[in-house]
Design a protein that fits this description.
Largest sheet: 7 strands, mixed
Radius of gyration: 17 Å
Distance between the termini: 23 Å
Order of helices and strands: HHEEHEHEEEEEEEEHEHEHEHE
Strand content: 15-25%
Oligomer: single chain
Protein backbone atom coordinates (compact mmCIF):
# COMPACT_ATOMS: atom_id res chain seq x y z
CA UNK A 1 0.00 0.00 0.00
CA UNK A 2 1.06 3.59 -0.61
CA UNK A 3 1.22 6.24 2.11
CA UNK A 4 -2.30 7.60 1.52
CA UNK A 5 -3.71 4.10 0.97
CA UNK A 6 -2.48 3.11 4.43
CA UNK A 7 -4.27 6.10 5.97
CA UNK A 8 -7.48 5.40 4.02
CA UNK A 9 -7.40 1.63 4.54
CA UNK A 10 -9.69 1.64 7.58
CA UNK A 11 -12.38 3.72 5.83
CA UNK A 12 -14.46 0.79 4.45
CA UNK A 13 -14.70 -0.78 7.90
CA UNK A 14 -14.95 2.38 10.01
CA UNK A 15 -17.33 4.22 7.67
CA UNK A 16 -19.05 7.07 9.48
CA UNK A 17 -17.07 6.56 12.69
CA UNK A 18 -15.08 9.67 13.67
CA UNK A 19 -11.51 9.81 12.42
CA UNK A 20 -10.53 13.34 13.49
CA UNK A 21 -12.28 15.70 15.89
CA UNK A 22 -11.03 19.29 15.81
CA UNK A 23 -11.54 20.97 19.19
CA UNK A 24 -10.76 24.43 17.78
CA UNK A 25 -13.44 24.37 15.05
CA UNK A 26 -15.80 21.70 16.35
CA UNK A 27 -15.50 19.79 13.06
CA UNK A 28 -15.69 16.01 13.16
CA UNK A 29 -14.26 14.22 10.11
CA UNK A 30 -15.44 10.65 9.59
CA UNK A 31 -13.40 7.94 7.88
CA UNK A 32 -15.81 7.81 4.96
CA UNK A 33 -15.75 11.60 4.53
CA UNK A 34 -11.96 11.62 4.63
CA UNK A 35 -11.61 9.03 1.86
CA UNK A 36 -14.29 10.71 -0.23
CA UNK A 37 -12.81 14.21 0.08
CA UNK A 38 -9.24 13.07 -0.57
CA UNK A 39 -9.99 11.07 -3.71
CA UNK A 40 -12.38 13.66 -5.13
CA UNK A 41 -10.24 16.68 -4.30
CA UNK A 42 -7.36 14.83 -5.97
CA UNK A 43 -9.47 14.58 -9.11
CA UNK A 44 -10.29 18.28 -8.78
CA UNK A 45 -6.60 19.16 -8.56
CA UNK A 46 -5.85 17.09 -11.65
CA UNK A 47 -8.70 18.86 -13.45
CA UNK A 48 -6.93 22.13 -12.59
CA UNK A 49 -3.89 20.83 -14.43
CA UNK A 50 -1.84 19.56 -11.49
CA UNK A 51 1.14 17.70 -12.92
CA UNK A 52 3.01 14.77 -11.41
CA UNK A 53 5.66 16.16 -9.06
CA UNK A 54 4.21 19.68 -9.05
CA UNK A 55 4.45 21.50 -5.72
CA UNK A 56 1.34 22.77 -3.96
CA UNK A 57 1.70 25.15 -1.03
CA UNK A 58 -0.45 23.94 1.89
CA UNK A 59 -1.02 26.57 4.60
CA UNK A 60 -3.52 24.73 6.80
CA UNK A 61 -3.32 24.52 10.61
CA UNK A 62 -3.34 21.24 12.48
CA UNK A 63 -6.91 19.97 12.55
CA UNK A 64 -9.43 18.03 10.49
CA UNK A 65 -8.67 19.91 7.26
CA UNK A 66 -4.89 19.32 7.23
CA UNK A 67 -4.87 15.59 6.38
CA UNK A 68 -7.50 16.15 3.69
CA UNK A 69 -5.43 18.86 1.98
CA UNK A 70 -2.09 17.05 2.20
CA UNK A 71 -3.34 13.62 1.17
CA UNK A 72 -5.41 15.06 -1.69
CA UNK A 73 -2.26 16.65 -3.12
CA UNK A 74 -0.23 13.46 -2.67
CA UNK A 75 -3.01 11.23 -4.10
CA UNK A 76 -3.17 13.51 -7.15
CA UNK A 77 0.57 13.03 -7.71
CA UNK A 78 1.69 16.41 -6.39
CA UNK A 79 4.07 17.44 -3.62
CA UNK A 80 2.51 19.10 -0.56
CA UNK A 81 4.71 21.94 0.70
CA UNK A 82 3.82 22.72 4.32
CA UNK A 83 4.27 26.45 4.90
CA UNK A 84 2.68 29.89 5.03
CA UNK A 85 4.73 31.60 2.35
CA UNK A 86 6.28 30.77 -0.97
CA UNK A 87 5.44 30.39 -4.62
CA UNK A 88 3.45 27.68 -6.37
CA UNK A 89 0.89 27.59 -9.13
CA UNK A 90 -1.72 26.14 -6.75
CA UNK A 91 -2.07 26.91 -3.06
CA UNK A 92 -4.42 25.54 -0.40
CA UNK A 93 -5.21 27.55 2.72
CA UNK A 94 -7.66 27.34 5.58
CA UNK A 95 -8.86 30.84 6.38
CA UNK A 96 -6.17 33.31 5.32
CA UNK A 97 -4.50 34.47 2.14
CA UNK A 98 -1.79 37.11 1.92
CA UNK A 99 -0.78 37.76 -1.73
CA UNK A 100 2.45 39.33 -0.47
CA UNK A 101 3.46 36.06 1.22
CA UNK A 102 1.94 33.55 -1.21
CA UNK A 103 2.48 33.80 -4.95
CA UNK A 104 -0.06 31.49 -6.58
CA UNK A 105 -2.28 31.49 -9.66
CA UNK A 106 -4.98 29.41 -7.97
CA UNK A 107 -5.80 29.59 -4.26
CA UNK A 108 -8.36 27.30 -2.65
CA UNK A 109 -9.57 27.88 0.91
CA UNK A 110 -11.58 25.76 3.35
CA UNK A 111 -13.13 28.94 4.76
CA UNK A 112 -14.29 32.02 2.80
CA UNK A 113 -11.30 34.25 2.05
CA UNK A 114 -10.98 37.19 -0.32
CA UNK A 115 -9.04 36.23 -3.41
CA UNK A 116 -9.49 32.48 -2.91
CA UNK A 117 -11.90 29.92 -4.30
CA UNK A 118 -13.72 27.46 -2.02
CA UNK A 119 -11.88 24.19 -1.48
CA UNK A 120 -15.25 22.51 -2.01
CA UNK A 121 -14.96 23.39 -5.71
CA UNK A 122 -12.29 20.72 -5.95
CA UNK A 123 -14.57 18.05 -4.46
CA UNK A 124 -16.73 17.06 -7.41
CA UNK A 125 -18.29 13.75 -8.50
CA UNK A 126 -15.09 12.40 -10.11
CA UNK A 127 -12.51 10.61 -7.99
CA UNK A 128 -8.95 9.40 -8.42
CA UNK A 129 -9.08 5.64 -7.87
CA UNK A 130 -5.35 4.95 -7.75
CA UNK A 131 -2.69 7.30 -6.43
CA UNK A 132 1.03 7.22 -7.27
CA UNK A 133 2.99 4.18 -6.11
CA UNK A 134 6.19 6.13 -5.61
CA UNK A 135 7.74 9.54 -6.07
CA UNK A 136 7.95 12.65 -3.88
CA UNK A 137 4.85 13.54 -1.84
CA UNK A 138 5.76 16.03 0.89
CA UNK A 139 8.33 18.61 1.92
CA UNK A 140 8.64 20.76 5.02
CA UNK A 141 11.43 23.09 3.98
CA UNK A 142 11.34 22.90 0.20
CA UNK A 143 14.72 21.13 0.18
CA UNK A 144 14.30 17.61 1.54
CA UNK A 145 11.60 15.67 -0.26
CA UNK A 146 9.80 12.83 1.51
CA UNK A 147 8.52 10.31 -1.01
CA UNK A 148 5.48 8.04 -0.87
CA UNK A 149 7.50 4.88 -0.28
CA UNK A 150 9.53 6.42 2.56
CA UNK A 151 6.43 7.80 4.28
CA UNK A 152 4.56 4.50 3.92
CA UNK A 153 7.45 2.38 5.17
CA UNK A 154 8.02 4.66 8.13
CA UNK A 155 4.30 4.64 8.97
CA UNK A 156 4.29 0.84 9.07
CA UNK A 157 7.30 0.85 11.40
CA UNK A 158 5.71 3.54 13.53
CA UNK A 159 2.54 1.45 13.88
CA UNK A 160 4.68 -1.45 15.10
CA UNK A 161 6.50 0.64 17.70
CA UNK A 162 3.62 2.77 18.95
CA UNK A 163 0.76 0.33 18.94
CA UNK A 164 -2.62 2.06 18.55
CA UNK A 165 -5.85 0.10 18.18
CA UNK A 166 -9.20 0.86 16.58
CA UNK A 167 -10.80 1.31 19.99
CA UNK A 168 -8.32 3.94 21.11
CA UNK A 169 -9.16 7.63 21.46
CA UNK A 170 -5.95 9.57 20.94
CA UNK A 171 -5.43 13.19 21.95
CA UNK A 172 -3.05 15.05 19.67
CA UNK A 173 -1.45 17.82 21.73
CA UNK A 174 1.55 18.20 19.44
CA UNK A 175 3.41 21.42 18.75
CA UNK A 176 3.57 21.67 14.95
CA UNK A 177 1.64 20.54 11.83
CA UNK A 178 3.90 17.77 10.50
CA UNK A 179 4.09 15.98 13.86
CA UNK A 180 0.34 16.39 14.07
CA UNK A 181 -0.10 14.98 10.58
CA UNK A 182 2.00 11.91 11.42
CA UNK A 183 -0.01 11.43 14.62
CA UNK A 184 -3.24 11.51 12.62
CA UNK A 185 -1.76 9.17 10.01
CA UNK A 186 -0.76 6.69 12.72
CA UNK A 187 -4.16 6.73 14.42
CA UNK A 188 -6.17 6.50 11.20
CA UNK A 189 -4.07 3.58 9.96
CA UNK A 190 -5.33 1.71 13.02
CA UNK A 191 -8.94 2.96 12.72
CA UNK A 192 -8.66 5.00 15.94
CA UNK A 193 -10.22 8.37 16.76
CA UNK A 194 -7.94 11.43 16.99
CA UNK A 195 -8.97 14.47 19.01
CA UNK A 196 -6.86 17.49 18.06
CA UNK A 197 -6.40 19.75 21.09
CA UNK A 198 -6.27 23.52 20.78
CA UNK A 199 -3.42 25.30 22.60
CA UNK A 200 -3.06 22.30 24.92
CA UNK A 201 -2.08 22.72 28.54
CA UNK A 202 -1.68 20.22 31.36
CA UNK A 203 -5.12 20.97 32.80
CA UNK A 204 -6.68 21.21 29.34
CA UNK A 205 -5.33 17.80 28.31
CA UNK A 206 -6.54 16.18 31.52
CA UNK A 207 -10.02 17.66 31.12
CA UNK A 208 -10.14 16.70 27.43
CA UNK A 209 -8.95 13.18 28.22
CA UNK A 210 -11.71 12.78 30.77
CA UNK A 211 -14.39 14.25 28.50
CA UNK A 212 -13.40 12.14 25.49
CA UNK A 213 -12.42 9.04 27.47
CA UNK A 214 -9.02 9.16 25.83
CA UNK A 215 -6.59 6.26 26.09
CA UNK A 216 -3.52 7.78 24.42
CA UNK A 217 -2.02 11.28 24.30
CA UNK A 218 0.82 12.48 22.09
CA UNK A 219 2.41 15.66 23.40
CA UNK A 220 5.67 17.65 23.59
CA UNK A 221 8.22 16.30 26.05
CA UNK A 222 7.53 18.74 28.91
CA UNK A 223 3.78 18.24 28.73
CA UNK A 224 4.09 14.48 28.22
CA UNK A 225 6.34 14.22 31.28
CA UNK A 226 3.76 15.99 33.45
CA UNK A 227 0.98 13.75 32.15
CA UNK A 228 2.80 10.59 33.23
CA UNK A 229 1.33 8.79 36.19
CA UNK A 230 -2.26 8.66 34.97
CA UNK A 231 -3.01 4.90 34.80
CA UNK A 232 -5.76 5.46 32.22
CA UNK A 233 -3.51 7.24 29.70
CA UNK A 234 -0.65 6.02 27.57
CA UNK A 235 1.62 9.03 27.04
CA UNK A 236 3.86 9.40 23.97
CA UNK A 237 6.53 12.05 23.43
CA UNK A 238 5.73 13.75 20.11
CA UNK A 239 9.31 13.30 18.95
CA UNK A 240 8.67 9.57 18.64
CA UNK A 241 6.32 10.03 15.67
CA UNK A 242 8.99 11.67 13.48
CA UNK A 243 12.33 10.51 14.92
CA UNK A 244 12.73 7.64 12.42
CA UNK A 245 12.48 10.18 9.58
CA UNK A 246 15.32 12.14 11.12
CA UNK A 247 13.08 15.13 11.89
Amino acid sequence: MTWTELVMAAAPMQGDQPAVSDVRTGEVLSYAAFARRVTRAAAGLQAQGLRYGERVLVDVPLGAALPVAVHAVAWAGGIAVLGSHGESRISITYDRYDPAAVKADLVFSFRPVAGARPFSELVGPAAVEFGPLAGPALTLDGARLLDNAELATDLRRLATRLVVGKDDVLISAVSEPFRGLRTIDLAMTAGAHVVVAHEPSLVGCRVLAQERRATVVVAPYDLARRLLGDPTLRVVDERAVVSSLGL
